[in-house]
Amino acid sequence: MKILVVVVLLVGGLSSEAAAKANLHDYGDALSKSILFFEGQRSGKLPSNHRLTWRKDSALRDGADDGVDLTGGYYDAGDNVKFNFPMAFSTTMLAWGVIEYGKSMGPDLPHALEAVRWSTDYLLKSTATPGVVFAQVGDPNGDHNCWQRPEDMDTPRTVYKVTEKDPGSEVAAEIAAALAAASLAFKAFGDRPYSKVLLERASKVFEFADKYRGSYNDSIGSGACPFYCDFSGYQDELLWAAAWLHRATKRPIYWNYVVENIENFKPQIEASISEFGWDSKHAGINVLVSKYVLSQSLEGTTPFLSYADNFVCSVLPESPTNTVSFSPGGLLFKSGVCNMQHTTALSFLLLVYTRYLKNSKHVIRCNDVIVAQNQLVGFTRKQVDYILGDNPLSLSYMVGYGTKFPQRIHHRASSLPSMVQQPQHIDCKGGTPYFLTDRPNPNLLIGAVVGGPDIHDRFPDDRMDATTSEPTTYVNAPLVGLMAYFKARSSH
């Protein structure tokens, strides 16, 4: 077989090394802002050092009607519901970014750890009752019928939970993964007592998720669907959580679980090799596990490394087995809502896989094309730079970065007058005129990355088009690690 070695990948007309030296973007500024975004998504009692001063305390009675304290955590996007499934995934990704690139974050590291802790403190509350995992707070149907500040919420703060009789393996397992990943982040950066608490809870929650199997789609019904239905099943979350617990504990029981269960999951994982996000963990499992496979020289005994390679080949545009699309401007594009979640999550996986391969002799082959590791770095940089403004519209898709960025994002708190500007209560429909106006949002949700342009690089900057204009925690979470890496690379 003839092997073609592809070694050239251009980033804005420069090699990745030249682009790094040119420092085309201020990745340090983008890193700071991508973390700051999470402060704008906070629910609960805000601390005195809260930096987005237009946001105030909200949802201070969450859980009270059920006799529990479920204050804290994050609103997932532009609404005022706390969906624990995507929140836990965002937490896992934030923690993973800290684990891999925390040393490159400099003065932003404490803020990144604080962003992780804001969620894990809440997830600890959500899993504190034996035999119960709280899966969500807030009636999404009532919430989506209103355009209201989180500080004013008078929609039902319904509590949804999964139990032994009404299980929810995907939400429980993703919480276990988040707690395990966060335990590694805090262990690495000096808070071993908190790390221990997180890891102990992760183990218990995983045991619950695995023992009492079932989908939260069935258990909490309209709370999950159609908002965050689990379409991929819960087996991927169980494998994902076990992989994180193995990395955090080194216990063979978790490794054996992953290896034994991947056999039953092969058809699904092979059919969804490039899927990774709050719903599907397929590609993430393979990249995460590849680190251990490489360190233990297990390449020929497990399928994970070949799966990780297949993931790479399914994404890179120069691969003959590519399965994803790209806009004319070069943005990775997959069908569905909020495309930027795919861009950031898949780019993060490619960069981390490069990190794991760095000192190995493993070679990625996409049929007759050999993929060099610097291609993966170049690809991820091109995606990051597109987000920051290197695109046909010369528009930064991160609010507050650069001079031209989205002004009318689909976000209640950002689009309504702040409590400082208008302390009077705004009721359910009182915010509708602010939703409908074409005026810019009065409050900058700095660091928010929106759903992004369509496949033709068009972006309407329209508040009513949630698909393109709504920011989410799971878009920003993988971006934090990416920005930290390129910040360090551009400073050399």
Automatic annotation (TrEMBL):
Q: What's an example of a GO molecular-function annotation for this chain?
A: cellulase activity
Q: Which residues form the active site?
A: H410
A biological-process GO annotation? cellulose catabolic process
Q: What is its EC number?
A: 3.2.1.4
The record's catalysed reaction(s) read:
Endohydrolysis of (1->4)-beta-D-glucosidic linkages in cellulose, lichenin and cereal beta-D-glucans
Domain Glycoside hydrolase family residue range list:
27-483
Keywords from UniProt, A to Z, are: Carbohydrate metabolism, Cellulose degradation, Glycosidase, Hydrolase, Polysaccharide degradation, Signal
Renumbered to this chain, the signal peptide range is 1-20
Gene3D superfamilies in the cross-refs? 1.50.10.10
Q: Indicate the family of this protein.
A: Belongs to the glycosyl hydrolase 9 (cellulase E) family.
PANTHER family for this protein: ENDO-1,4-BETA-GLUCANASE (PTHR22298)
Q: What is this protein's name?
A: Endoglucanase
Q: Which organism is it from?
A: Sesamum alatum
